[in-house]
Amino acid sequence: MKATEVPAIDGAYLFEPTPYSDERGFFCRTFDADVVRSVGLDPDAFVQDSLSRSVRGVLRGLHLRSGAGEAKLVRCSYGRIFDVVVDLRTDSPTYRNVATFELSGETQTTLYIPAGCAHGFQALTGTTDTSYRIDRPHDPAEDVTIAFDDPELAIPWPLPPASMSQRDREAPSLAEVLKQKES
Fold this sequence. Notes:
Elements: E1 2-5, E2 13-16, E3 20-22, E4 25-27, H1 33-38, E5 48-55, E6 59-65, E7 72-78, E8 80-87, E9 98-104, E10 110-113, E11 117-123, E12 127-134, E13 143-145, H2 166-169, H3 174-182
Antiparallel strand pairs: 1-2, 2-10, 3-4, 5-12, 6-11, 6-13, 7-10, 7-12, 8-9, 8-11
C-alpha cells in the first residue's frame, strides 16, 4: 500500500493498495496502520466505521461537521463513486479548493479527508457501497450541509441526481453556511 498526497487539498491523502490477483479474484489490504502513521496520521484516532449503499445517481452531500470537525477515510468497497472534497479550513493554503476523484471497488483506494473539509459523492453504478472510518463519534447536532449545486463551487457532477435526502435537497449555499459560521 502506498500513500500519495492530494495537491489540491492540504493534508488529504490517497491510500492505494497493492492487490494480489489470481483466477479467484483479488486480495488487498484496505487499511495499514504503519502506512497511515508514515504520513503523520494517528491510526488509533479512528473510532467509528460506517457503510452506505446507494444506487446509480444517488447523491450524498456536501456534508461536514461543526465544532472540531471530523477527519475521515472514505473508500468505495463495491461499485464506483464520483467523490468530492471541498477545503473549508480558513487557515489552509488550499482554502475553498475543490478536488474530485473516482473511487471504485476495483481499486479499493481510500481517500483521507482532513477535518474541516466538506465531502460528498455520487454513485455511478447500479449498486455502490461506500465505507467511512471517522475520528469522532457521530453527533447529528453538529451536521452541516452545503448545497451540492452551489454555483460558487461549480462541482461537475457526472449524472443528474436520481435521489437525495431532504436535508441535501434543501441545503443552504456555501455563502450562507460561512455567514452562519461567522455569527
